[in-house]
Amino acid sequence: MAKKKVILTRKIQILLDESDPEKRRVYQNRLHQWHDLIFKASNIAISHQFMQENIKDLLYLKEEAKVKLLDGKQNAAGILTTSRRNTTYQLLSKYFKGKVHSNIITNLNTSIVKAFFTDRQAYAKGEHSLRNYQKNMPIPFSGKLLKWIGLVEDRDFKFVLFKLPFRTFLGRDSGRKKKLIQQIIAGDIKIVQCAIKREKSGLFLFLCFEKPIDEMELKQGVVAEASLSLEHPVVVQVGHDLYRIGNKEEFLYRRLAIQAARHRIEASCSYNSGGHGKKKKLHRLETFRQKEKNYVQSKLHLYSRQLIDFCIRHQAGTLILVNQTPKNVVAHEDVFLLRNWGYHGLIEKIRYKAELAGIHLIVE
Questions:
Q1: The domain boundary residue, chosen from 125, 156, 185
Q2: Which one of 62, 84, 239, 264 has the lowest number of neighbouring Cβ atoms within 10 Å?
Q3: Buried b (16+ CB within 10 A) or exposed e, 161-175
Q4: Is residue 360 within 8 Å of residue 261, measured between CB atoms?
């Protein structure tokens, strides 16, 4: 029986590996142009998918104008020259062929169509508005196009993508990422659709790969019941064993201390000397915003990891988050809880780690 697999993503900073300033400028301009075109193409594609989905609801059309959005080759009443999913690919190819690599167009269309069909029920009920893609969206491409050259100075890797030379910048977390890339080069790990994204801090590669879910000796009959609260972020019980993960002083008070420091800096920013731009004046304020974000993410990862490890030690094949839905309603009504306690973020991290461990998660 084949192992179940899950798609994981690692974010790796990359640099253009070109010493000639003129060539480097050309490569940078090409990436900027691709980002702008991808942003435009994404909004065009999802708008056409939405129009095709709702054309039957245009009641002001004549009866003879009402048609079926089907492939004419498969249905005589259909008016399309191809399948529904392929219509936007043909559209994007017509507008952007020669400006963007065809592999990018293919992967972009696949992602847009998948996202639309995921949200189509919410669109029909009026619960969601149509997605609006921004200029900083990533450039998708097939992972097989990454041509790895090799290791440089026993630390970073060189690779070529769309005839552009790059090198990685692994930073402090070089050990695990270095091992991952070496496994990819050796063919031990299969990479799938990846992406490149330009951010304020630089250029990043989102490396996506398949990872088999480890088979652990879990018993579906053993149930772990967990409760999320403000006093203790996670309280989990299996049988008579009760385990409290974290506490209010550890998580909330530390976060409030970071917020207080940020508020003091915010109050003093108006007294900073001018002449160096807004970004320079608000640099310290942005630093503390990022500190708070990093602190919360680190704690939520820690709590979810400890919860899953507890379930594995007790061979619990099922994890139930007890009475979580009512708590989410209360948290949305309480401004303090909504601002300071990320129920949704913790649940998503628990769900992700539970899937990797093969634990069935139930949210009540």
A1: 125
A2: 62
A3: bbebbbbbebeeeee
A4: no
